[in-house]
Structures are given as C-alpha cells and as structure tokens.
C-alpha cells in the first residue's frame, strides 16, 4: 500500500478511482485499511476544496415542509399564529431561538439547519 496526500485535482480523481476499485472488499484486510485511509483523505480534500455552506434556514424549513407534506398551519404550534408563520416563510421575520428549539424538538429538524443568520427581504 503506497498512499500519498491528495494535492491536485488529478490526485483526487485517481484516489476516487482507487476507492471505487476497493469498494466491497472484505473487512479486516489490507484493502479495507487502504479504503479507510483513502476515504479519510478524500473527505479532508473535499472539506478544503469543496466546502458546503450551511443551508439558508427558511429554505431548509420549506424543504422540510415539502418533503413531509406539511401545511403552513402545521407550523403554528412551533412558530406562532398563521400570520407569524407567513412572515417567517416570506423572510419578513427571523426565526427566534425559542422557535428554533420548538422546530427541533417537535419536528426533529437539525438545529444546524436553522441557526444560520439570513437577511430579511423587503415586502413586495
């Protein structure tokens, strides 16, 4: 096993190819150890060169609503009356910490998806 750091995009592509070759190898073998190391290297390279920003909280909330077939009224017990829900979803009002806690506790939405700051939008 000859493992080198991933320094270039070409190194990255070659490492991904090698990972593909090693997928499905038997556990507790030298190949499995190599796979584990290469995956760790790829994760580090991707974190540095392809960082993923945290989602916009309102877009994350809208995605959750769509995925689980919820209605705006389903959010009232977490955010407040229907007008407040509309204000939040239209970027007229920010989520507060109590709202975030209730959304997390009640709907199991990860707090990391809801805490990023975002800009309010002017009414149209």
UniProtKB/TrEMBL annotation:
> Where's the HTH cro/C1-type domain?
61-114
Protein name, per record? HTH cro/C1-type domain-containing protein
Task: Name its GO BP terms in alphabetical order.
Answer: regulation of DNA-templated transcription
**Coiled-coil region(s) at which residues?**
none
Source species of the chain: Spartinivicinus marinus
What's an example of a GO molecular-function annotation for this chain? core promoter sequence-specific DNA binding
């Amino acid at each position: 096993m000859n493992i080198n750091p991933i320094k270039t995009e070409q190194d990255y592509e070659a490492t991904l190819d090698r990972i593909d070759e090693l997928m499905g190898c038997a556990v507790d073998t030298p190949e499995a150890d190599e796979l584990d190391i290469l995956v760790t290297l790829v994760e580090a390279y991707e974190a540095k060169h392809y960082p993923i920003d945290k989602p916009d909280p309102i877009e994350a909330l809208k995605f959750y609503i769509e995925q689980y077939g919820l209605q705006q009224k389903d959010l009232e017990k977490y955010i407040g009356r229907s007008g407040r829900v509309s204000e939040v979803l239209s970027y007229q009002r920010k989520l507060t910490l109590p709202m975030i806690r209730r959304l997390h506790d009640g709907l199991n939405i990860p707090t990391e998806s809801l805490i990023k700051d975002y800009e309010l939008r002017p009414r149209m």
